[in-house]
Design a protein that fits this description.
alpha/beta, Rossmann fold, seven-stranded mixed sheet, six-stranded mixed sheet, 22% helix, globular, binds zinc ion
Length: 331
């Protein structure tokens, strides 16, 4: 790597003097998206996409020193041309493109190739070096179409209501929760959200994202409020006293890990929906191929086996990179 090097503090672009999603406090950082494994506290100066601004301030404090740019806008950092390009992962998520002396490197952050109707669709960016996540870099990961998944979620909600049960659906408060919200059939009943989801919604709305603004659950709301409703909450709320007044209910959880990992939470929920904001196996391969990169660095998940596959089956020079990404929040 000449445009990028891996340091103790994270991925660094020496000529530009900027870190990408660093895990230690540094002077200057460009942040691919607001999830906690990428957007951390303590940087003197932050750079991110416009749509990440309010959520980053919500999570890191409104006093952070944050500069925002649009997709495709170029910044000159000591002769390095830096720009952000849609990653399709969550609103505001970006791939970082760095160009210096004819060399181009792209850091993907987290991405998905399927358009979710909420985030700007993933844009393949040609480069010499591509740093790609590969959270779901195994052939067993093949997502169903989201239309099918949302049809399943809506019919689950409808069925629960018919059985006299309320529906509590667990999903990450940033990204997944909003994606679900946008795809619920509004005529099926009332929808409420946990405070963590509501705060995130308000931040996104403040950033100009067109979201269905549903009420948060408050202490004053009587039990009867929730009859036939669907409540969206982060996985951390599962089994907490907060859930008491929703009874009788059924629980569901949305995660990409659903189909393989018998996680504790998965077992604890009545129903699992396989919904991920990351690319599946085919999505990763098509995204990586489209970059035409000569060298691929892999982060998150099955880096070793996926790297081996790219090398042996596709002839792509791929190596794993030890980072602190991928410890997905609220997992
Ligand atoms: Zn993420
Ligand atoms: Zn990540």
């Amino acid at each position: 790597m000449n445009l990028l090097e891996l340091t103790e503090s994270g991925l660094f672009c020496p000529p530009a003097g900027i870190f990408i999603d660093p895990w230690k406090a540094v002077d200057r950082a460009v942040i691919t998206h607001a999830h906690s494994d990428h957007s951390r506290w303590g940087m003197k100066h932050y750079l991110a996409h416009t749509h990440s601004a309010e959520v980053m301030k919500l999570r890191l404090g409104s006093e952070i020193n944050l500069e925002t740019i649009e997709y495709g806008q170029f910044l000159d950092l000591n002769g390095v041309k830096l720009s952000l390009h849609p990653a399709g992962h969550i609103p505001g998520s970006a791939q970082v493109r760095l160009e210096y002396k004819g060399k181009v490197a792209v850091v993907s952050g987290d991405y998905k190739t399927e358009t979710d109707g909420l985030s700007m669709p993933f844009e393949p960016v040609k480069c010499h070096e591509f740093v790609s996540e590969c959270t779901f870099g195994l052939p067993i990961y093949k997502w169903e179409s989201q239309a099918q998944i949302f049809a399943d979620i809506n019919s689950w909600w409808k069925g629960n209501a018919e059985d006299g049960r309320n529906s509590v659906l667990f999903a990450y408060s940033l990204g997944k929760a909003q994606r679900i919200l946008q795809n619920l059939e509004r005529e099926l009943g009332e929808v409420f959200v946990h405070g963590a989801v509501w705060n995130t919604n308000q931040a996104l709305i403040a950033n100009g994202i067109d979201l269905w603004d549903v009420p948060r659950v408050t202490a004053e709301m009587p039990k009867s409020t929730f009859k036939g409703s669907l409540i969206i909450a982060p996985p951390s709320a599962m089994g907490s006293p907060w859930m008491k007044k929703f009874g009788p209910y059924r629980t569901g959880i949305c995660s990409g890990w659903m189909n393989v990992r018998g996680t504790r939470r998965r077992r604890a929920a009545d129903r699992g929906f396989v919904l991920s904001d990351h690319a599946d196996w085919e999505g990763l391969i098509s995204a990586i191929t489209a970059t035409e990169a000569e060298k691929v660095y892999l982060t998150h998940g099955s880096t070793a086996s996926f790297g081996k596959f790219l090398q042996e089956e596709r002839g792509i020079d791929a190596v794993e990179l030890k980072t602190l990404f991928g410890v997905e929040e609220e997992s």
